[in-house]
Amino acid sequence: MLWKIALLVLFVSCSSTKESRLASSPNLVFTITDGISHPESVLFSKNDNAIFVSNIPSGNPVEVMPVGNISKYTTTGKVIAAPWVKGLRAPKGMALVGNELYVSDVDQVVKIDVRNAKVLQAIKIPGAKFLNDVAADKSGNVYISDMMTDTIHVWNKDGVKVWKKSPELRSPNGLFVNGNEQLLIASWGQPIADNFTTKNPGTLMTIPVANPAEKLHEEATLPGNLDGISEDNKGTLWISDWMNGNIYAVQRNGTVQKKMNLRQGTADLFYSKELNLLFVPQMYESKVMAFKVE
Fold it and tell me: Mapping DSSP to helix (H, G, I), strand (E, B) and coil, where does residue 19 land?
């Protein structure tokens, strides 16, 4: 398919030797490169006091061979295990529920026992084309976005099913469940061209996790193709624009500020409230950057 070809070109065509460019002056605390290969997502586990990174070594986001992995690091970016869990294909978004790590992997969702570094289950989702981000609510329901089918799935005690499917999702990418049990959705935008650009940019939307039938509420329109979304200790949302390399801060009142400009391939970022650090995967440069941000 053309979109598969376009994605592959996007993932492997940029040089990793050029330094990232910053539009502002955030404090870069450390950079992780050991064991990192085309990182898509990063997550900090308070219980394990460790950083997890999903890697796509082939650079192909729809990889069919089991070459992908998850790597594990200390709070200062030192390797604990790289790889930590192998046998995935093109792992992307991650979410923790207790001691279980849920990871999207092209058309399946993988559940990993964190304490034993063991894959417990891999569920293939019928009709899935490009599973992307993963988020969990306080009840342990796990939400998974499929950017190419305008669908959000849910995995709970009843198994995996479609939670919401609508063109209004506008290619849903990043997911985050806030303290009010609302699902926040960072969309890529539509229509998606062969080179993965869009005529209309992504939008930040919310919907109650208790009522997927409710109309989506648009919170803020951002000028880009949105990827990761996370929240800091002040309630500010941090959102990445994969295509343009921008990182935005969205305040509680809806004010949007562009805080950084990195390289294309700025993927599924994560803010650790425990470490007060913003972790940013740079897919093209095969590194994860940890920032102190205001």
Answer: coil
Tell me how crowded residue 150 is: count the other CB atoms within 10 A of its CB.
Answer: 18
**How far apart are the C-alpha atoms of 214 and 205, rounded to whole Å?**
12
pLDDT one-digit tens code per residue, 35-60: 999 999 999 999 999 999 999 999 99
Q: Which residues of 177-216 are buried (b: 16+ CB within 10 A; e: fewer)?
A: bbeeebbbbbbbbbebeeeeebeebbbbbbbebeebeeeb
Name the strands in the sheet holding 131-136, side by side, starting at the edge strand that comes first in the sequence.
131-136, 142-146, 151-156, 159-165
The one-character DSSP state at 267 is -
pTM: 0.91
109, 142 contact by CB (below 8 A) = yes
Query: How far apart, in Å, do the first and last CA atoms of the chain sit?
Result: 42
Count of positions (residues) in the chain:
294
Phi, psi for residue 11 in degrees, rounded to 5 = -75, -30
Domain ranges of the chain: 2-14+22-292
Domain range 2-14+22-292, CATH class: mainly beta
List CB contacts of 152: < 8 A, sequence separation 6 or more: 143, 144, 145, 146, 162, 163, 164, 165, 169, 172, 175, 183, 185, 212
Query: In the chain, which ranges are continuous DSSP H helix?
Result: 2-12
Cα 222 to Cα 258: distance, rounded to the nearest angstrom: 10
